[in-house]
Specification:
Number of helices: 13
CATH architecture of the largest domain: 3-Layer(aba) Sandwich
Organism: Pararobbsia silviterrae
Structural class: alpha/beta
InterPro entries: Glyco_trans_1, Glyco_trans_4-like_N, Glycosyltransferase_grp1
Strand content: 15-25%
CATH class of the largest domain: Alpha Beta
Distance between the termini: 36 Å
Helix content: 25-40%
Pfam families: Glyco_transf_4 (PF13439), Glycos_transf_1 (PF00534)
Order of helices and strands: EHEEHEHEHEEEHEHEHEHEHEHHHH
Protein name: Glycosyltransferase family 4 protein
CATH superfamily of the largest domain: Glycogen Phosphorylase B
Number of domains: 2
Number of strands: 13
Keywords: Transferase
Shape: globular
CATH topology of the largest domain: Rossmann fold
Radius of gyration: 22 Å
Length: 357
């Protein structure tokens, strides 16, 4: 199958550090190539891939201080893909609603995976205007604000099976972990409270975006000295196995409807249980009592941490391999692509209808 993957240009594919969407695009692209498909990746020029790379911009926009209008490079990207659309069997966009108008009437089928939140009131009219645009959700929960959109399937994210693996030597369970990004809805302050309540050290490996710098300095930094907390900062892929494997559990005390939560399956890949609040995709990703515990509040998290001995790290890793590898994700997407292609094929009259005619 000839597949075009169209990624955002904000980060390279894969990103050097934090960047959920571009990271998933990379995992999917490489898995499709490994499965024998002819894949072209439209992304920034500093991306690294085994697919055919079409550089839509020289480098990731995040790394180009001269860029002030990030919308313009994405419009150029879309036009480049539109002119080459006939070269592919399917186009797979990761650009939210940007392709809808430009690609509504082209012959090549396309699909868009929505990676972000959909509960913003200003985007609902956009999806109402394009009800036939095929969409993939990354959790069933993500669909709730737009139940009548053109949903094709729900396909969970996946990681390469060998990317993050348990590190037995690091597996002393001496601390709790928080991984990801510092912002109000991720509630690192709640993670600090949980760790303090159970008397365990907390290591925070997280990115602080410019938009969240004031929040970090005002609300989080003062808390770092009130408990046994180590702020590690942003870490890369090679650092995650030791960081996660060494933790007794990953804390995921979110305060919003997280569409997926990649850090949960990163933790599972390392055999580390997840203590997560019951919001968004959490009940779909975490198998309660198997890969972690789903709780409703701080008291529930404290109680769950007392039951970690009931969980098997080997079974956590096994469940990851069954549900959340990039190979599993890619096969699900290939099925979705095939359904789109079949839907575009002309209906051939049967022999009976020809005879009756």
């Amino acid at each position: 199958m000839r597949i075009a993957q169209i990624a955002p240009l904000h980060e390279a594919v894969p990103p050097k550090f934090y960047g959920g969407t571009e990271r998933v695009v990379s995992y999917l692209t490489e898995a499709l190539v490994e499965q024998g498909h002819d894949v072209t990746l439209f992304a920034s020029g500093d991306s690294i891939t085994n697919a055919r790379l079409e550089a839509a911009w020289p480098q990731a926009l995040r790394l180009d201080p001269s860029i002030r209008d990030t919308f313009a490079p994405h419009i150029m990207l879309l036009e480049h893909v539109r002119r080459r659309a006939r070269e592919f069997d399917v186009l797979h966009f990761h650009l939210d609603y940007l392709p809808f108008s430009l690609f509504a009437d082209i012959e090549t089928p396309f699909v868009t995976t929505l990676h972000g939140r959909l509960d913003l009131p200003e985007i609902a009219p956009m999806f109402s205007a394009f009800p036939q645009a095929p969409l993939v959700s990354i959790s069933d929960s993500q669909r709730a604000p737009l139940p009548n959109a053109g949903w094709l399937d729900t396909i969970y994210h996946g990681l390469p099976s060998g990317l993050l693996t348990p590190r037995a030597a690091a597996n002393d369970g001496g601390y709790l972990a928080f991984l990801g990004r510092i912002c109000p809805e991720k509630r690192v302050d709640t993670a600090i409270e949980i760790a303090a309540r159970v008397g365990m050290p907390l290591k925070i490996a997280a990115k602080v975006d410019k938009v969240d710098r004031e929040y970090f300095e005002r609300d989080i930094e003062p808390l770092l000295a009130t408990a046994d907390v180590e702020f590690v900062g942003e870490i890369n892929e090679s650092q995650k196995p030791a960081f996660l494997s060494g933790a007794a559990a990953l804390l995921f005390p979110i305060d919003w409807c997280e569409p997926f939560g990649l850090v949960m399956i990163e933790s599972m890949a390392c055999g580390t249980p997840v203590i997560a609040f019951r919001r968004g995709s959490v009940p779909e990703v975490i198998d309660h009592g198997v890969t972690g515990f789903i709780v409703d509040d701080v008291d529930g998290a404290v109680q769950a941490l007392g039951n970690l001995a009931d969980l098997s790290r080997d079974e956590i890793r096994a469940q990851f391999e069954r549900r959340f590898t990039s190979d599993v994700m890619a096969r699900r997407y290939v099925d979705a692509y095939a359904s789109l292609i079949r839907a575009r094929e002309p209906v051939r009259p049967s022999l009976c209808s020809v005879a009756l005619g």
